[in-house]
Specification:
There is one protein chain. By secondary structure, the protein is of the alpha/beta class. It has two domains: about 170 residues, Rossmann fold; about 70 residues, no CATH class. About 35% of the residues lie in helices and about 25% in strands. It has a six-stranded mixed sheet, sandwiched between helices. Strands 2-1-4-5 form a four-stranded antiparallel sheet, covered by helices on one side. It is globular.
């Protein structure tokens, strides 16, 4: 059984059907990319999995447990964490304080909070250098590192990322996505929505393509990267992620 499994998910905004029977799965330790144009349903898929949006029908199973009907904070406690588009960090708090909030569910275990912060700082040395800096004064790339690091404080089994490279300079975007690949190598599965399709496919094992609320293509990322339909629609003009 997959670690995360979504079956026949249908979501409506009023009378508008945003997701039309989405089904996907994520296995332990792999990166799975979701590709698609604006308004295709990518963000809605992540929001529904993390209980920020309620489905009309369908099932979501995580680590053998049903998620539909659970609260967002209980889903985080189960080991599924969502970093939304736009980072959503607390600008008036320091890096350290943002990370402490990421460890809210383990706040009574000071040694564990300390250990996880050390792991985040090892993953993102730049954050260690700026631990006492107000988050709102950092660069966009540093803020994205902080958003991911804050999520990692809950030690998720699945990390969902919505457009982590959005608005970043190409060199920073590549750096962030290399870190995503490293997170997966360490055992955390990643469900990735990413505007830069070429880079997403370069770090993913599998991928799904969504159009108008439906999955129209799925398969191994390396195969989809060579698919003429994917190349024509999503791969024009992007630079490949660095291999190292």
């Amino acid at each position: 059984m997959a670690l995360l499994e979504v079956k026949d998910l249908r979501v409506f905004y009023g009378n508008i059907e945003a997701l039309r029977g989405i089904s996907l799965q994520v296995n332990a330790g792999e990166v799975v990319a979701i590709l698609g144009g604006n308004g295709a349903g990518k963000t809605t898929t992540l929001r529904t999995i993390s209980a920020l949006q309620r489905p009309r029908s369908g099932t979501i199973t995580f680590n053998g447990k049903p998620l539909v009907g659970q609260s967002a904070h209980s889903i985080v406690g189960l080991g599924l964490c969502h970093v939304p588009e736009g980072r959503r960090i607390f600008n008036v708090l320091t890096v350290e304080e943002n990370l402490n909030l990421g460890g809210y569910l383990i706040r009574s275990k000071g040694h564990l909070v300390k250990e996880r912060k050390a792991a985040v700082y090892a993953l993102f040395p730049r954050l260690a250098e700026r631990r006492l800096q107000l988050a709102g004064t950092m660069s966009g790339g540093e803020q994205q590192m902080l958003a991911i690091g804050r999520a990692m404080m809950s030690e998720p089994k699945v990390l969902m990322l919505d457009e982590p490279s959005l608005g970043l300079a190409p060199i920073l975007a590549r750096s962030v996505l290399r870190t995503v690949r490293e997170i997966a190598k360490r055992g955390t599965a990643v469900l990735l929505v990413e505007q830069n399709a070429r880079q997403a496919l370069a770090i993913a094992q599998r991928a799904y393509v969504i159009e108008v609320g439906r999955i129209v293509l799925e398969g191994e990322a390396s195969v989809l990267a060579k698919d003429e339909r994917v190349q024509k629609a999503y791969l024009g003009g992007f630079e490949a992620v660095a291999s190292n």
